[in-house]
């Protein structure tokens, strides 16, 4: 009997009954280093069940993707929707010790009983290869990139506003505001000046994803260093409820929390908020229930928010300019998500 059990265990772990896994990716997050875990078998991508999923497993994903240290192992629907409606679940459970170089080296059980409400996910620390320095805030400053282990500035001849949008997104800041030639003597860079023509579309998650040539030293001077300014990071919260996944919606702008007007608000916007907060799907209760969270006070920051439901952040939904509205606090948005 013991021999039979060992044979069954050997079959159910290791390479797996359904063949080898060739690649892994994270999908549905704000950048390539967070999201729902998907593994590739042949030419098809499938998800991973969260049975036994922990930071040891997530650490291997982060390492395999070159995404730095693991921050969190995630379970559930935080990073929906699925890549395909009928997407398969390939793996029931990974059993990593956290030291493997790739998921393919971990023991695993192939899928037998799971739903997409139990998809595994991971949040990794994005590798630091770009930064803004010497600015008044962390989302403003002189652009520096890391190449061959050495930080250097970027020449204006190789820069564009589209590249600025990518940097703001990569650093977790808000929208790109401006890019200009830097700097006065106090904020000029030192050391190498890197030149690389980056043909960014502005939609990439990181500079690494922009089609470009190789980094090389340039003949520019530090008078031509690039300066970038982004909005502060876009943060939101639900307040007045019993937990973090239900309450009156508030967004942070210019260091001040304010509410959102319900003009044009719908279930698609609810989905974006629930996803961004890492909660479950929206429950969409009636207006009477939402009013229990009470009106806000102070600023009303957003109005006429028009989400499709596919956005990864409320920031990506079209809306009026910050602070422009025709509302009062009786129209404050409230959102209720599953935990």
TrEMBL record:
Disulfide bonds join 96-106, 200-210, 307-317. PROSITE patterns: SRCR_1 (PS00420), SRCR_2 (PS50287). GO terms for molecular function: serine-type endopeptidase activity. GO terms for cellular component: cell surface; extracellular space; plasma membrane. The keyword Repeat applies. It comes from the Eukaryota. Residues 24-125, 130-231, 236-338 form the SRCR domain. Keywords: Disulfide bond, Glycoprotein, Repeat, Signal. One of its GO terms (biological process) is positive regulation of phagocytosis, engulfment. Residues 1-18 form the signal peptide. InterPro entries: SRCR, SRCR-like_dom_sf. PANTHER family: CD5 ANTIGEN-LIKE, SRCR DOMAIN-CONTAINING PROTEIN. This is CD5 molecule like.
């Amino acid at each position: 009997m013991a021999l039979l059990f060992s044979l069954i265990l050997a079959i159910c772990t290791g390479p797996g009954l359904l063949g080898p896994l060739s690649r892994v990716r994270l999908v549905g997050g704000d950048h390539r280093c967070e999201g729902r875990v998907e593994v590739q078998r042949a030419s098809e991508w499938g998800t991973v069940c969260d049975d036994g999923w922990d930071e040891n497993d997530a650490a291997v994903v982060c390492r395999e993707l070159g995404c730095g240290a693991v921050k969190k192992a995630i379970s559930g629907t935080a990073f929906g929707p699925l890549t395909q409606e009928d997407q398969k679940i390939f793996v029931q459970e990974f059993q990593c010790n956290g030291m493997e170089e790739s998921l393919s080296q971990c023991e695993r059980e192939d899928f037998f009983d799971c739903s997409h409400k139990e998809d595994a996910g991971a949040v990794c620390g994005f590798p630091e290869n770009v930064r803004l320095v010497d600015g008044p805030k962390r989302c403003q400053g002189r652009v520096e990139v890391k190449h061959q282990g050495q930080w250097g500035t970027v020449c204006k001849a190789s820069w564009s506003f589209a590249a600025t949008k990518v940097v703001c997104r990569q650093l977790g800041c808000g929208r790109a505001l401006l890019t200009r030639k830097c700097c006065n003597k106090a904020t000029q860079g030192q050391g190498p000046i890197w030149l690389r023509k980056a043909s960014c579309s502005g939609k990439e998650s990181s500079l690494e994803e922009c089609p470009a040539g190789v980094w090389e030293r340039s003949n520019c001077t530090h008078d031509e260093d690039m300066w970038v300014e982004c909005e502060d990071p876009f943060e939101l919260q639900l307040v007045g409820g019993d937990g973090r996944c239900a309450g009156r919606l508030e967004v942070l702008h210019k260091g001040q929390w304010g509410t959102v007007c319900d003009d044009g608000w719908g279930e698609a916007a609810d989905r974006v908020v629930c996803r961004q907060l890492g909660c479950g799907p929206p429950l969409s209760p009636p207006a009477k229930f939402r009013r229990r969270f009470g009106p806000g006070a102070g600023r009303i920051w957003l109005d006429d928010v028009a989400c499709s439901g596919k956005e990864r952040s409320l920031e990506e939904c079209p809306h009026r300019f910050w602070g422009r509205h025709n509302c009062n606090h009786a129209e404050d948005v409230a959102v209720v998500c599953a935990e």
